[in-house]
């Protein structure tokens, strides 16, 4: 099961894919059908809207699909001020998604992703690493004085405001009714999804005695082969068969 939250504009924003009804192979007999969840968003979505969508949709997927683990790509190009981004997301809202996935209680692995404004990437992944290790309440919001290229961060805080980042927030083109329609559509899509197969994981101890015997037999065979080659070489040299 894959889930993607992204800016979507098929005519003006690369790559133009990821519509709400792009949900995997169209053939219903293909096991991948309905297992791609796309959450297409417009410019200007806020922390509150994004987190509402994320928590609602991921919560429904975990309940329905019952995954055994979550792989979360923390793409920083969704943050406000990114060279390619168009949202009003801040570091706190971005990190809240990591916190939600962590609270689900499943094995979780975090990956980096897009992000084309380095100061955004550094802030986001610093904060999200602190969430991953459980020290987000202890991390200082003030950038350390010894931070390399500190002047490139523009503000000396881990959590700059939208006004500091953009001057003026982008116009929000995500009406609440549209967001509710997205959640409803995905809920309907999940009706066709079965839970992931559950396999109990157990460590099977190796039969060390059998392995040792196999290795010893293989070594004996190799030694016998070397002795045979040596005998044949000596016979060829003296012209008389030799007993070993």
Automatic annotation (TrEMBL):
InterPro entries linked: His_deacetylse_dom, His_deacetylse_dom_sf, Ureohydrolase_dom_sf
Against SUPFAM superfamilies, the record matches this protein to: Arginase/deacetylase
Organism the protein comes from: Photinus pyralis
**Catalysed reactions, semicolon-separated:** N(6)-acetyl-L-lysyl-[histone] + H2O = L-lysyl-[histone] + acetate
What is the name listed in the Swiss-Prot or TrEMBL entry for this protein? Histone deacetylase domain-containing protein
**Which residue ranges have biased composition labelled Basic and acidic residues?**
219-235
A biological process (GO) annotation for this entry? Answer: epigenetic regulation of gene expression
What GO terms are given for molecular function? Answer: histone deacetylase activity, hydrolytic mechanism
Superkingdom: Eukaryota
What GO CC annotations are associated with the protein?
Rpd3L-Expanded complex
Output the Pfam families linked to this UniProt entry: Hist_deacetyl
Q: Where is the Histone deacetylase domain?
A: 1-130
* Region spans: Disordered: 219-244
């Amino acid at each position: 099961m894959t889930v993607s939250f992204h800016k979507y504009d098929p005519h003006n924003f690369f790559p133009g894919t990821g519509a709400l009804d792009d949900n995997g192979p169209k053939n219903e007999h293909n096991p991948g059908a309905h297992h791609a969840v796309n959450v297409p968003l417009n410019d200007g979505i806020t922390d509150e809207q994004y987190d509402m969508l994320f928590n609602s949709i991921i919560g429904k997927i975990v309940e329905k699909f019952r995954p055994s683990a979550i792989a979360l790509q923390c793409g920083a190009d969704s943050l406000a001020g990114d060279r390619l981004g168009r949202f009003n997301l801040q570091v706190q809202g971005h990190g809240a998604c990591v916190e939600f996935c962590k609270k689900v209680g499943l094995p979780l692995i975090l990956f980096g992703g897009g992000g084309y404004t380095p100061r955004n990437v550094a802030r986001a992944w610093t904060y999200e690493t602190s969430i991953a290790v459980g020290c987000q309440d202890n991390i200082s919001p003030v950038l350390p004085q010894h931070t390399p290229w500190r002047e490139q961060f523009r503000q000396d805080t881990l959590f700059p405001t939208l006004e500091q980042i953009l001057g003026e927030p982008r116009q929000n083109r995500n009406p609440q009714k549209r967001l509710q329609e997205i959640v409803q559509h995905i809920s309907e899509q999940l009706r066709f999804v079965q839970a992931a197969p559950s396999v109990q994981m157990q460590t099977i101890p190796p039969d060390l005695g059998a392995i040792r015997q196999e290795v010893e037999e293989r070594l004996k065979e190799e030694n016998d082969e070397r002795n045979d080659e040596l005998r044949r070489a000596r016979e060829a040299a003296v012209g008389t068969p030799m007993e070993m």
